[in-house]
Amino acid sequence: MVDVNTLADGEPRNNFFERALTWNEGGVLTGARHITIAGNWFYITTDHSVVVLDMTDPLAPVMKSTIEMDDPRATALQFRYLFVTEKGGLRVLDATNPAKPVKLDGALVPLKDARRVYLARTYAYVAAGAEGLAIVNVKNPEKPKLHSIFNADGKIVDARDVILGTTNASLFAYVADGVGGLKVIQMTSPKSQPRYYGYSPEPKPELIAWKATSSPALALSKGLDRDRGVDETGGQIAVFGRLGSRPFTMAEQRKLYLDAKGDPWTVSDTPREGDFVAAPSKRAKAD
User: Would the pTM count as exceeding 0.90?
Assistant: First the structure.
Protein backbone atom coordinates (compact mmCIF):
# COMPACT_ATOMS: atom_id res chain seq x y z
CA MET A 1 0.00 0.00 0.00
CA VAL A 2 1.28 3.45 -1.00
CA ASP A 3 -0.27 6.79 -0.02
CA VAL A 4 -0.73 8.84 -3.22
CA ASN A 5 -2.26 11.94 -1.64
CA THR A 6 0.97 13.78 -2.33
CA LEU A 7 -0.14 14.01 -5.96
CA ALA A 8 -3.28 15.95 -5.03
CA ASP A 9 -1.91 18.72 -2.80
CA GLY A 10 -0.77 21.01 -5.62
CA GLU A 11 2.84 20.92 -4.46
CA PRO A 12 5.07 19.35 -7.13
CA ARG A 13 8.21 19.33 -4.96
CA ASN A 14 7.00 16.60 -2.60
CA ASN A 15 5.86 14.01 -5.14
CA PHE A 16 7.66 11.09 -3.55
CA PHE A 17 6.10 7.79 -2.58
CA GLU A 18 6.73 5.76 0.54
CA ARG A 19 5.45 2.27 1.22
CA ALA A 20 2.84 2.47 3.97
CA LEU A 21 2.06 -1.22 4.34
CA THR A 22 3.12 -4.64 3.12
CA TRP A 23 0.48 -7.30 3.75
CA ASN A 24 0.55 -11.04 3.05
CA GLU A 25 -1.05 -12.63 6.07
CA GLY A 26 -0.36 -16.36 6.15
CA GLY A 27 1.13 -16.15 2.65
CA VAL A 28 -2.36 -15.88 1.15
CA LEU A 29 -1.16 -13.45 -1.54
CA THR A 30 1.96 -15.32 -2.52
CA GLY A 31 2.03 -15.45 -6.31
CA ALA A 32 -0.34 -12.47 -6.68
CA ARG A 33 -0.63 -11.44 -10.34
CA HIS A 34 -3.69 -9.20 -10.84
CA ILE A 35 -5.98 -6.95 -8.81
CA THR A 36 -9.48 -5.55 -9.36
CA ILE A 37 -10.54 -2.72 -7.05
CA ALA A 38 -14.28 -2.22 -6.54
CA GLY A 39 -14.75 0.45 -3.90
CA ASN A 40 -13.46 -1.07 -0.65
CA TRP A 41 -13.35 -4.61 -2.12
CA PHE A 42 -10.13 -5.99 -3.58
CA TYR A 43 -10.16 -9.12 -5.76
CA ILE A 44 -6.63 -10.48 -6.17
CA THR A 45 -5.68 -13.49 -8.28
CA THR A 46 -2.84 -15.75 -7.21
CA ASP A 47 -1.63 -18.86 -9.01
CA HIS A 48 -4.40 -20.98 -7.47
CA SER A 49 -7.19 -18.76 -6.08
CA VAL A 50 -9.03 -15.45 -6.00
CA VAL A 51 -8.55 -13.68 -2.67
CA VAL A 52 -11.18 -11.19 -1.46
CA LEU A 53 -10.04 -8.40 0.85
CA ASP A 54 -12.11 -5.78 2.67
CA MET A 55 -10.04 -2.58 2.43
CA THR A 56 -12.38 -0.24 4.31
CA ASP A 57 -9.32 0.64 6.37
CA PRO A 58 -6.50 0.55 3.79
CA LEU A 59 -3.87 0.02 6.48
CA ALA A 60 -5.73 -2.91 8.02
CA PRO A 61 -6.79 -5.37 5.28
CA VAL A 62 -9.32 -8.02 6.26
CA MET A 63 -9.40 -11.26 4.30
CA LYS A 64 -13.02 -12.25 3.67
CA SER A 65 -12.69 -15.33 1.48
CA THR A 66 -10.60 -17.29 -1.00
CA ILE A 67 -12.07 -19.05 -4.03
CA GLU A 68 -10.03 -21.91 -5.40
CA MET A 69 -9.57 -21.63 -9.17
CA ASP A 70 -7.60 -23.38 -11.90
CA ASP A 71 -4.66 -21.02 -12.56
CA PRO A 72 -6.66 -17.74 -12.43
CA ARG A 73 -5.15 -14.88 -14.42
CA ALA A 74 -7.36 -11.78 -14.04
CA THR A 75 -10.77 -10.56 -12.84
CA ALA A 76 -13.37 -7.92 -13.71
CA LEU A 77 -16.53 -6.97 -11.81
CA GLN A 78 -19.87 -5.81 -13.20
CA PHE A 79 -22.76 -5.20 -10.80
CA ARG A 80 -23.15 -8.52 -8.98
CA TYR A 81 -21.00 -10.75 -11.18
CA LEU A 82 -17.28 -11.39 -11.01
CA PHE A 83 -15.64 -12.54 -14.26
CA VAL A 84 -12.43 -14.55 -13.93
CA THR A 85 -10.08 -15.74 -16.64
CA GLU A 86 -8.47 -19.06 -15.75
CA LYS A 87 -6.72 -21.95 -17.46
CA GLY A 88 -9.99 -23.32 -18.90
CA GLY A 89 -11.42 -20.02 -20.16
CA LEU A 90 -13.73 -17.28 -18.84
CA ARG A 91 -15.68 -18.21 -15.70
CA VAL A 92 -18.48 -16.20 -14.04
CA LEU A 93 -19.07 -16.00 -10.28
CA ASP A 94 -22.07 -14.61 -8.41
CA ALA A 95 -20.79 -11.68 -6.33
CA THR A 96 -24.15 -10.56 -4.93
CA ASN A 97 -22.37 -10.89 -1.60
CA PRO A 98 -19.15 -9.09 -2.59
CA ALA A 99 -17.26 -10.68 0.28
CA LYS A 100 -17.94 -14.25 -0.84
CA PRO A 101 -18.34 -14.74 -4.61
CA VAL A 102 -19.73 -18.14 -5.60
CA LYS A 103 -19.01 -20.11 -8.77
CA LEU A 104 -22.01 -20.52 -11.06
CA ASP A 105 -22.62 -23.97 -12.48
CA GLY A 106 -22.02 -24.06 -16.21
CA ALA A 107 -21.02 -20.38 -16.45
CA LEU A 108 -17.78 -21.08 -18.30
CA VAL A 109 -16.72 -20.18 -21.84
CA PRO A 110 -13.86 -22.51 -22.84
CA LEU A 111 -10.75 -20.78 -24.20
CA LYS A 112 -7.28 -22.24 -24.68
CA ASP A 113 -5.32 -19.39 -23.08
CA ALA A 114 -7.51 -16.67 -21.53
CA ARG A 115 -5.46 -13.75 -20.17
CA ARG A 116 -7.00 -10.36 -19.26
CA VAL A 117 -10.69 -9.51 -19.56
CA TYR A 118 -12.52 -6.22 -20.09
CA LEU A 119 -16.28 -5.75 -19.64
CA ALA A 120 -18.27 -3.37 -21.82
CA ARG A 121 -21.99 -3.54 -21.09
CA THR A 122 -23.30 -6.81 -22.56
CA TYR A 123 -19.98 -8.09 -23.91
CA ALA A 124 -16.80 -9.36 -22.31
CA TYR A 125 -13.58 -9.02 -24.28
CA VAL A 126 -10.87 -11.54 -23.48
CA ALA A 127 -7.24 -11.38 -24.57
CA ALA A 128 -6.89 -15.02 -25.56
CA GLY A 129 -3.23 -15.43 -26.44
CA ALA A 130 -2.59 -17.05 -29.80
CA GLU A 131 -6.32 -17.39 -30.45
CA GLY A 132 -6.69 -13.62 -30.63
CA LEU A 133 -9.47 -11.52 -29.10
CA ALA A 134 -12.46 -13.48 -27.78
CA ILE A 135 -15.78 -11.62 -27.69
CA VAL A 136 -18.26 -13.14 -25.22
CA ASN A 137 -21.95 -12.28 -24.96
CA VAL A 138 -22.73 -11.76 -21.27
CA LYS A 139 -26.21 -10.27 -21.59
CA ASN A 140 -27.20 -13.16 -19.33
CA PRO A 141 -24.08 -13.41 -17.14
CA GLU A 142 -25.14 -16.79 -15.75
CA LYS A 143 -25.15 -18.23 -19.28
CA PRO A 144 -22.27 -16.57 -21.15
CA LYS A 145 -21.87 -17.44 -24.83
CA LEU A 146 -18.92 -17.05 -27.16
CA HIS A 147 -19.90 -14.48 -29.78
CA SER A 148 -16.74 -14.67 -31.90
CA ILE A 149 -12.97 -14.86 -31.91
CA PHE A 150 -11.16 -12.20 -33.89
CA ASN A 151 -7.52 -12.58 -34.94
CA ALA A 152 -7.45 -10.17 -37.91
CA ASP A 153 -6.60 -12.93 -40.37
CA GLY A 154 -3.74 -14.15 -38.22
CA LYS A 155 -2.29 -10.71 -37.41
CA ILE A 156 -3.14 -10.97 -33.68
CA VAL A 157 -0.71 -13.60 -32.42
CA ASP A 158 -0.16 -13.18 -28.67
CA ALA A 159 -3.01 -11.20 -27.05
CA ARG A 160 -2.13 -10.42 -23.42
CA ASP A 161 -4.42 -7.53 -22.49
CA VAL A 162 -7.36 -5.56 -23.91
CA ILE A 163 -8.92 -2.20 -23.06
CA LEU A 164 -11.96 -0.61 -24.72
CA GLY A 165 -12.72 3.06 -25.23
CA THR A 166 -15.37 5.13 -27.01
CA THR A 167 -14.64 8.04 -29.32
CA ASN A 168 -17.77 9.85 -30.50
CA ALA A 169 -19.91 7.08 -32.05
CA SER A 170 -17.17 4.49 -32.50
CA LEU A 171 -15.94 1.82 -30.11
CA PHE A 172 -12.27 0.85 -30.15
CA ALA A 173 -10.35 -2.03 -28.58
CA TYR A 174 -6.67 -1.63 -27.79
CA VAL A 175 -4.86 -4.96 -27.59
CA ALA A 176 -1.45 -5.60 -26.04
CA ASP A 177 -0.45 -8.32 -28.48
CA GLY A 178 2.74 -9.52 -26.77
CA VAL A 179 5.38 -10.09 -29.43
CA GLY A 180 2.95 -8.58 -31.96
CA GLY A 181 3.08 -5.13 -30.32
CA LEU A 182 0.03 -2.85 -29.98
CA LYS A 183 -3.07 -3.44 -32.10
CA VAL A 184 -6.06 -1.10 -32.50
CA ILE A 185 -9.42 -2.65 -33.43
CA GLN A 186 -12.48 -0.64 -34.40
CA MET A 187 -15.53 -2.43 -33.02
CA THR A 188 -18.31 -0.26 -34.40
CA SER A 189 -18.58 2.38 -37.09
CA PRO A 190 -21.37 3.77 -39.28
CA LYS A 191 -19.94 1.81 -42.21
CA SER A 192 -19.40 -1.61 -40.60
CA GLN A 193 -22.35 -1.53 -38.19
CA PRO A 194 -25.35 0.55 -39.37
CA ARG A 195 -26.91 -0.05 -35.95
CA TYR A 196 -23.92 1.40 -34.10
CA TYR A 197 -26.14 3.62 -31.97
CA GLY A 198 -27.84 2.22 -28.91
CA TYR A 199 -26.90 0.77 -25.55
CA SER A 200 -24.79 -2.19 -26.67
CA PRO A 201 -24.51 -2.65 -30.45
CA GLU A 202 -23.10 -5.91 -31.76
CA PRO A 203 -19.34 -5.52 -32.32
CA LYS A 204 -18.02 -5.77 -35.89
CA PRO A 205 -14.24 -5.86 -35.33
CA GLU A 206 -11.80 -4.45 -37.88
CA LEU A 207 -8.04 -4.09 -37.40
CA ILE A 208 -7.25 -0.47 -38.28
CA ALA A 209 -3.78 0.20 -36.85
CA TRP A 210 -0.81 -1.44 -35.19
CA LYS A 211 2.54 -0.48 -33.73
CA ALA A 212 5.60 -2.64 -33.25
CA THR A 213 7.14 -2.42 -29.76
CA SER A 214 10.75 -2.91 -28.78
CA SER A 215 9.76 -5.60 -26.28
CA PRO A 216 6.55 -7.65 -25.88
CA ALA A 217 3.44 -5.56 -25.17
CA LEU A 218 2.08 -7.03 -21.91
CA ALA A 219 -0.48 -4.62 -20.47
CA LEU A 220 -2.43 -1.42 -21.05
CA SER A 221 -3.54 1.40 -18.77
CA LYS A 222 -7.23 2.23 -18.52
CA GLY A 223 -8.97 5.57 -18.80
CA LEU A 224 -12.00 6.64 -16.77
CA ASP A 225 -15.22 5.11 -18.06
CA ARG A 226 -17.35 7.94 -19.40
CA ASP A 227 -20.69 6.62 -18.19
CA ARG A 228 -19.78 5.66 -14.62
CA GLY A 229 -20.13 8.28 -11.89
CA VAL A 230 -19.56 5.95 -8.94
CA ASP A 231 -17.64 2.83 -8.07
CA GLU A 232 -19.21 -0.44 -6.97
CA THR A 233 -19.65 0.65 -3.35
CA GLY A 234 -21.21 4.03 -4.12
CA GLY A 235 -18.09 6.19 -3.88
CA GLN A 236 -18.09 9.12 -6.32
CA ILE A 237 -15.35 8.96 -8.98
CA ALA A 238 -16.45 11.79 -11.28
CA VAL A 239 -18.26 15.09 -11.02
CA PHE A 240 -21.11 15.55 -13.49
CA GLY A 241 -21.48 18.89 -15.24
CA ARG A 242 -25.26 19.21 -15.08
CA LEU A 243 -27.10 20.79 -12.15
CA GLY A 244 -29.04 18.62 -9.73
CA SER A 245 -27.20 15.40 -10.50
CA ARG A 246 -25.49 13.13 -8.03
CA PRO A 247 -24.30 9.50 -8.09
CA PHE A 248 -26.30 6.64 -6.64
CA THR A 249 -25.48 5.60 -3.11
CA MET A 250 -24.64 1.93 -2.48
CA ALA A 251 -28.13 1.34 -1.07
CA GLU A 252 -29.72 2.87 -4.18
CA GLN A 253 -27.55 0.76 -6.47
CA ARG A 254 -28.55 -2.43 -4.70
CA LYS A 255 -32.23 -1.66 -5.34
CA LEU A 256 -31.47 -2.12 -9.05
CA TYR A 257 -30.78 -5.82 -8.59
CA LEU A 258 -31.96 -6.87 -5.12
CA ASP A 259 -35.53 -7.07 -3.81
CA ALA A 260 -36.79 -5.98 -0.39
CA LYS A 261 -35.50 -9.23 1.14
CA GLY A 262 -32.01 -8.77 -0.29
CA ASP A 263 -32.40 -11.48 -2.93
CA PRO A 264 -31.63 -10.94 -6.64
CA TRP A 265 -34.57 -9.99 -8.84
CA THR A 266 -35.83 -12.92 -10.88
CA VAL A 267 -38.52 -13.42 -13.49
CA SER A 268 -41.25 -15.47 -11.85
CA ASP A 269 -44.81 -16.42 -12.70
CA THR A 270 -45.64 -16.21 -9.01
CA PRO A 271 -44.42 -12.87 -7.62
CA ARG A 272 -43.68 -12.65 -3.94
CA GLU A 273 -45.27 -10.09 -1.66
CA GLY A 274 -43.51 -6.76 -2.09
CA ASP A 275 -42.06 -7.59 -5.52
CA PHE A 276 -42.55 -5.09 -8.33
CA VAL A 277 -44.31 -6.61 -11.33
CA ALA A 278 -44.66 -4.73 -14.62
CA ALA A 279 -47.96 -5.33 -16.39
CA PRO A 280 -47.53 -6.41 -20.03
CA SER A 281 -48.23 -3.67 -22.52
CA LYS A 282 -50.80 -3.97 -25.30
CA ARG A 283 -47.96 -4.02 -27.80
CA ALA A 284 -46.23 -6.87 -25.94
CA LYS A 285 -49.45 -8.88 -26.10
CA ALA A 286 -49.77 -8.17 -29.81
CA ASP A 287 -46.17 -9.23 -30.47
Answer: no
